[in-house]
Structure formats: structure tokens, C-alpha cells
TrEMBL record:
This is Arylesterase. Pfam families: Lipase_GDSL_2. Residues 1-18 form the signal peptide. Residues 51-214 form the SGNH hydrolase-type esterase domain.
Amino acid sequence: MMKLTWTVFCGWLLLALAGCSTNDTPTTTDAPPAASKPAASTATGKPTILFFGNSLTAGLGVEPDEAFPALIGQKIDSAGLRYTVVNAGLSGETTAGGRSRVGWVLRKPVAVFVLELGGNDGLRGIPLTDTRRNLQAIIDTVRQLSPQAQIVLAGMQIPPNLGADYAAEFKQLYGELAQKNNLVLIPFLLEGVGGVAKLNQRDGIHPTPAGHRLLARTVWGILRPVLQQPQPAAGS
């Protein structure tokens, strides 16, 4: 496993705040962004996997088919599993923004909901009570609107610039939310990618296609066992 030094990682994350915020416009449920299409799959009849996150999920700076959710879709097809992947990532998204749009995105039920949010909160120094509350509200909304969905939570880490206690508690909140809500946890989405120059674009912020392939490998290692479980029958 590649070791990530905090010196490099700190620089990467501090740049990420500026980079992601350039596209951070207010999000409302009345006018949802075009990227956040309803997670329906009526045309194919396949259950849906919805990736709900920020620029990492959206694949900012790479082609749509190079972003890790699309690569997961390819792995699903290769494994002979019947799922449709929907990418509902939005660059610059915070947990508050995600909370405001999740209800619209979930107008149709999903089988798996991959939640990748919180990094931008940590970079802005948003109180952890707010981040935790927003993530919990998103989880509660998923459980209400798509009760059969398996929720997968992607963990994130931040450097100790805002204090070692804040950074440690930020990291811990993902595990605590996963345990409290019986979620599947990806311990650290950017394992082996964050802060590694050759795996990030020229801005030093967003993964290259090669970086996204590593993200996909990390996610697939957690997600594949979930997808191989029998799906509950409709109405059960």
C-alpha cells in the first residue's frame, strides 16, 4: 500500500478547496443541476447504483467514461452483474448541498447508494456537528425514499491544518456513522492517490484517468461483495 505523506497531502487538500469551490454554486431542490438526473432504470429493468458526491465522483477534468463510477460500471459488466450505474456527482458539493438535492435525485428507488461527501466541509472548517448532521440527514432520506437500498459510505481524511483534534474527529465520524447506521464503509476513498503527483491532474487536485482507475479499484474491492448479495424481491 502506497504511503501518503501528510506534507504532500496537506498541499493537495488546501489546493482542493480553491479548485472545487470554483464550481460551487448554490444548489436548490427547485432547480437541480443537470448532472443529478433521477436514478431510474426503467428502460433496462436493472437495479440502480447511484454515486452521490462531489468533483471526485463527477470526474472533473476527465472524460465521463474515465471517472471511477463509469469504471465501476465496466467492472460490473465484466463480472456479469446486472446493475445500471448513475453518476450524480457535483463539483464543489458540500454535505449541506447534498442534503438539499438528495430528495430530488431519489425520485426513483435505487439498489445501492454510494455516498461520497464531506471533504469540502472539512477543507472549509465547517463544524463537525454540521457535517455529521447533514450526512445523517442524507442517510435518513435514502432510508425513507429507498428503504431497500444498501448505503455505502466513502470515508475521507483531512490534514491537521485546522487542528489535530479536528482532523482526527473528521476521520472518525465516517466510521461512527457507518457503525450507527449499519453502512458499508470505504475507509479512505483516496488511498494511494491523494497527494501523488503522477496520479493527479496538473492542478494537483483532481485524479488523472490513472488515478481514477485506482479509485475504482478501491471502491470495487468494497462494492463487489455488496453487489453479489441476493437482491430483495420487489415489495418484500
